[in-house]
Design a protein that fits this description.
By secondary structure, the chain is mainly alpha-helical. The chain is built from nine helices and no strands. It is globular and about 55 Å long. The two termini are 21 Å apart.
Amino acid sequence: MATIPYQTVKSSPGRWLRDGATAVWRTYAEGGRGLIAAPLIAALVVVPEALQHVVELGMGIFDSPEAARALRNDPLRMAFGMPKVVAFVMAILAFARFHALGSVRAALLPGWRTVGAVVVAVALWNALGFAIQWVQHALGASPLASIVVAINWASQLLLLIPIIALLLDDSRRPVWHHVRRWQALVALALLLPLAFAPSWYLHKALHVLALRTPFAADVALLAFDAVLIGVLASITGAALVRGFRTGG
């Protein structure tokens, strides 16, 4: 499968709009192709999602809205839900490597150096985020709290770029050079919500719909939903790579 190339950005505002729309379209197309080309990566999250649905159906969580509220935090459901969340994140990262490197093997078997660098970088990223949030809570209703929130979002997104560089084994420039890549920052800020939100809200809507349909329809809806989560992981991985590679 072809990998996502590095993209230069033209200076014309009209060209920005056209390039932005094209980037969104290509992100979705690449996400769909990734699901077909790399079903093993999709299975990382599709299988745990389907297993949790089987457990939920057995518990009767989709029998009614009241049952859903009562069983939402059931320990058995949580026992399947937490590993599924971890699997979802792993699938996104694996799909990002796949879209960048074009190989399922390379996507699923990164070197220990890559794994270690990403783990350390993500730990530092989260630590910074928690520290800024602590300052935000300490400020309370102060007008400065809004400024801290903006700083938090900007810093988290900005530091995401060198983390992606480590994840993709990108050696074109020193890792901290990526912090200055404002075009990639803007591309990620636009692409990630547009890639993630539609499928995520459809996923939530399918769960609500399953509360109002017969058991046989629930099975069909939730089977589709499990595949949808695989699609979401692939599209989000493609958005990470396309945004990262914007601006060269």
